[in-house]
Amino acid sequence: MRFLVRDRLLGIGDDYWIEDDQGNKVFLVDGKAMRLRDTFELKDARGRVLIDIRKKMFALRDTMVIERDGEALAAIRRKRLSLLRNHYRVTLTDGTELDVSGKILDREFAVEYDGELLAVISRRRLHIRETYGVDVVRDDADPALLIAVTVCVIHLAEREREG
């Protein structure tokens, strides 16, 4: 399953569509402006909120929290010791951990579970400028969750770069 994301410098309050490889609008990332903390909603094509994404207010390291139906689903933070590449850890509420690593700012990274590839985020092989693909590799993976993870790690990496 491939999703296409039009990449632009995103700020809070920016909304953008994520399309499938046929050009159909599948998800809307709705940035919420005028909030004390960074907040996004991932909506389906009909406008129904699938996932809420928020920056955790009181955390030692920048942390984003993903919620579904008001229940915490995952927390995402940068790994402490990652010198050569960007590494982020996604901790699901059931204790499962996903690893996100690669060149986040270049949109060339992967999401793995226990060494098994779940999704590849890449600009390669795309002819549309300022677009990157999110290829969900496993059929049983949750595309909305993987899109939310992608939004979070890119947002965290961009915030870190701004310093």
TrEMBL record:
InterPro entries referenced in this protein's UniProt entry, alphabetically: LOR, LOR_sf, Tubby-like_C
Q: Which family does it belong to?
A: Belongs to the LOR family.
Pfam families in UniProt: LOR
What is the superkingdom listed in this entry's lineage? Bacteria
What is the protein named? LURP-one-related/scramblase family protein
